[in-house]
Amino acid sequence: MPKLSVNLNKIALIRNSRDTKVPSVLEAAEISIEAGADGITVHPRPDLRHITPYDIMELSEFLSSPAYQNIEFNIEGNPMFEEGSNGYPGFIALVQEARPDQCTLVPDSNDQLTSDHGWDFSQLTFNLKETISRLRDQGIRVSGFVDPDPRQIGLAKKKGFERIELYTGPYAQNYGTPNQNPILSKFILAAEKSLQLEMNVNAGHDLNQTNLPLFIARMPEIKEVSIGHAIVSEAIYHGLRETVKTYKSILDEYG
Q1: Which pLDDT does position 145 carry in this prediction?
Q2: What are phi and psi of 189, to 5 degrees?
């Protein structure tokens, strides 16, 4: 059954709209775990628009408790983001200090509203393989954010990724349209390709209660789905605890 990792970026975004500590990222993590979440995901960006380095270290300490030994901490971000004058220490430095269970490398830019594409490994301008090796040497599983493209998945294996995370935006955008099944077929083939190469498969972006059941039912051996925007949005009406429980029930039923 796929695990559910709850992305808490939007909790931090709401908090940062005021000079306050409410809502608490840590409290949201605790409620999510109590409701059945298998992991916590955060995606810090250099402009500190939502998750901050302080949040990262607070979550790292919180999740290191023996009570949460089975809860995975996943940090997403672009490995090229360097130290900034605003207190951002650089993405890789932050990951190395926090020591999450998993680091998902994403090719986003700081001016993107959200991540909207996977890596093109043929266009890299830095030594990604060395970065992955360094993180793996510290006991951190490394996943790469990719489109459902067999060529890119093959290159991901050569770079040393242990997992891929399929960017599910195109599936979500075309759910309920005539393009739904052809696009879903691309994701199925991509997952099969990754599994053939002995890389496990995660998935995330724009998944919600409506489109998640079909995706999970059709996809082979998804290890983890990371969901944030939909969970936090739906929690406004139904509460965080009940919303996380609903997503877990979907994974239980269709996974």
Answers
A1: 97
A2: -65, -40
117 is catalytic: no
Task: Please give the domain boundaries of the chain with CATH numbers for all domains.
Answer: 3-254 (3.20.20.70)
Number of H-type helices and E-type strands within the chain: 11, 8
Tens digit of each residue's pLDDT (9 = 90 or more) over 206-254:
999 999 999 999 999 999 999 999 999 999 999 999 999 999 999 999 9
Share in percent of the chain as helix, strand, coil (round to 5): 45, 15, 40
Which entry of 50, 165, 205, 224 is annotated as an active-site residue?
205
pLDDT tens per residue, range 57-86: 999 999 999 999 999 999 999 999 999 999
Alpha helices, DSSP H, located in the chain: 9-16, 25-34, 53-63, 91-98, 128-137, 150-159, 169-174, 180-196, 212-218, 229-238, 240-254
Catalytic residue among 72, 76, 162, 224: 76
